[in-house]
Amino acid sequence: MGKIVNRTFAGAGALVLAMALTGTSSYAGGHPKVSTPTLTGWASLPAGTFVPGSEPSGALATGDLHGFTAPFADQPVQGFSGIVDNHDGTYDVLSDNGYGNQANSADFLLRIQRLAPAFATGTVDVVGGINLTDPNGKVPWQLTRTDRVLTGADFDVESIVKAKDGKFWLGDEFGPYLLHADRAGRLLTAPIPLDGVIAPETATRTGVPATTGSSKGFEGLASSPGGRYVYGLLEGTVAGDTPGQLRLNEFDTRAQKYTGKRYAYRLESTANAIGDAIAVDDNRFLIIERDGGQGATAVVKRLYLADKRDRNHDGLLDKTLLVDLMNVANPKKLAGFGTTFTFPFQTIEDVVILDDTHLAVLNDNNFPFSSGRTPGQADNNEWITIELPRSLRADKRLLK
């Protein structure tokens, strides 16, 4: 059986937070000191990390569990698919929807985990978290649970934005929908659909024909610096669009409706997918693009800088390669890796700007299925920080 670790400390004290802050102290300053993207920090949360005293999960998980035995006694802390910085040494990180699909994830509770990385020790502590719920009946169709706690059979939440008032916007793939939740994770409105885009899960429920593939909804969600708009990037091409071309839709958070403005991001290959999208300023975004490989078959794991101003007038976001995650300099051989660090995971779904020259990137370990770091072993959730050779010149409102 795989090793089970409980590193979850509700209401963690000053020691954990102090370690987290110690690990991030090297981010200070905005003057590049490297000539190529360079690893500056590494931490890892073990795959077998569970929320103690929660609920059993994984009763329908099948396949190669890499040494773990299902069902699990508690809810796993796993599959990170979106992140926001709380600017106090902690981060709110969105767990993925469960075990790979709607049919086997009804006992996985959708949750926002609060994490504190401690790079000095290479560890990550889980210092809290909230479940997503719908106590006021905002979802108009039947949910999996009568207590209206949301599960991986109800929504596939893949992206997250946190407003200044602490409320959340979440991007879902089953609709695709935008979900609006308060600081306790309670839905504030009915799920907001995107006109003309229907995922198979919604098609099955409503009878309206699907226009995109399964799990191809909102993989990235970016907030404008002032918080007025959020931008949802689809993971899959909509029927009728050019293959490999993805829609980025602008949503007005005040009016709570789409503005009608839409941009296009083109993948390097139709076989690729995006993992996350966050804003750098009013015009630029950081976008993770990846192939489906892991371990020895991982080739394309990249961070692009994308600009909606379309300076070459080709109708697409302008793309500039920022970081090749399979070729990150590691001159100090951090965490025991060689002088070239690779991030060879199937799904890499989290990026956050720490300052003008530093980023953090996390993988989604698809617990317990992915095995990209060590063949035959369930991947941990790794958390890396990277220094850039040039300043991002990010809008300061996004950094506080």
From TrEMBL:
Keywords: Signal. Residues 75-367 form the Phytase-like domain. It comes from Actinoplanes awajinensis subsp. mycoplanecinus. The keyword Cell cycle does not apply. Pfam families: Phytase-like. Residues 1-28 form the signal peptide. This is Phytase-like domain-containing protein.
